[in-house]
């Protein structure tokens, strides 16, 4: 039953890619990304009462006002990040842990920051139970990234920021990519791919209009930035 639902999810992702390829530049995703999507039991990352909808191509609530993104967007963002087996990836917004789980089979290590302690604890326990041993979940304000472990080969943000956080771009390796939704809460958001060239210069490409929950921050960190 699960396998049938996974196969249907993959077909839907392929159809979405074909429809949006004119904008994304991805009429098909890399086979390794599709294999990663197929290898993660999405029903383990949603609340029990929503397991019957786990493989639908839409976002689902996971509690605390947060959501698990639709499979197509997870797959697309993963592909746009262009992860490699030797990469260390920083994720901002762990949520249920699903995006981190998808990335785990594609890279050396995923470090995921979640600002809501309850979600961070649940995600960490879930990832460990399911055997995603190269994912580490930290609790904190992801806007600031993780400077003590930078630079990163890639950074992925799973909630919409009002602007591109400067600390995240600074923590990218030359040649690295930042994939992030940017815009107003629940409206006028764009999925951006920001690359840092070998000279440290920034290049930005808008991929698709999207809708994500807002990037949550701690008030004291906001005050510090505005300080």
Key traits:
227 residues; Rossmann fold; seven-stranded mixed β-sheet; two-stranded antiparallel ribbon
Please characterize this protein's 3D structure.
The model has no long low-confidence stretch (mean pLDDT 94). α5 links the parallel β4 and β5. The N and C termini lie far apart (54 Å). Helices cover 33% and strands 27% of the residues. The chain is built from seven helices and nine strands, in the order ααββαβαβαββαβββα. The longest helix has 23 residues. The chain has one domain: Vaccinia Virus protein VP39 (Rossmann fold, 3-Layer(aba) Sandwich). The protein is of the alpha/beta class and 227 residues long. The strands form two sheets. It has a seven-stranded mixed beta sheet with strand order 5-4-3-6-7-8-9. A two-stranded antiparallel sheet has the order 1-2.
Strand content: 25-35%
Number of domains: 1
Q: Name the average pLDDT.
A: 94
Total of DSSP H or I helical runs spanning 4+ residues: 7
Rg, Cα atoms, Å: 16 Å
- Structure class: alpha/beta
State the separation between the terminal residues, measured CA to CA.
Answer: 54 Å
Which spans of ≥5 residues are poorly predicted at pLDDT below 50? none
**In the CATH classification, which architecture applies?**
3-Layer(aba) Sandwich
How do the SSEs run, as a string of H and E? HHEEHEHEHEEHEEEH
Instruction: State the shape.
Output: globular
**Spatial strand arrangement across the major sheet:** 5-4-3-6-7-8-9
Largest β sheet strand count, sense and barrel closure: 7 strands, mixed
**What is the CATH topology descriptor?**
Rossmann fold
Report the CATH superfamily.
Vaccinia Virus protein VP39
> What would CATH call the class?
Alpha Beta
Question: What share of residues is helical?
Answer: 25-40%
Overall number of strands: 9
């Amino acid at each position: 039953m699960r396998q049938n639902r996974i196969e249907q999810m993959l077909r839907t992702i392929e159809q979405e890619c074909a429809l949006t390829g004119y904008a994304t530049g991805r009429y098909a995703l890399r086979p390794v990304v599709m294999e990663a999507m197929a290898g993660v039991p999405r029903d383990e990352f949603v609340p029990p009462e929503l397991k019957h909808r786990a493989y639908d191509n839409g976002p689902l609530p996971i509690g605390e006002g947060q959501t698990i993104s639709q499979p197509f967007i997870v797959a697309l963002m993963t592909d746009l990040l262009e992860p490699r087996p030797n990469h260390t990836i920083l994720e901002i917004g762990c949520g249920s842990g699903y995006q981190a789980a998808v990335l785990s089979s594609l890279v050396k290590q995923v470090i995921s920051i979640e600002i809501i302690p309850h979600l961070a604890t649940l995600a960490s326990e879930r990832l460990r139970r399911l055997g995603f041993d190269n994912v580490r979940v930290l609790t904190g304000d992801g806007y600031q990234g993780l400077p003590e472990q930078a630079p990163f080969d890639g950074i992925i943000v799973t909630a919409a920021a009002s602007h591109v956080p400067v600390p995240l771009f600074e923590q990218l390796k030359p040649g690295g990519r930042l994939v992030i939704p940017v815009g107003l809460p629940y409206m006028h958001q764009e999925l951006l791919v920001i690359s840092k060239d070998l000279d440290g210069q920034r290049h930005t490409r808008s991929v698709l209009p999207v809708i994500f929950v807002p990037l949550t921050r701690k008030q004291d960190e906001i005050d510090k930035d505005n300080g």
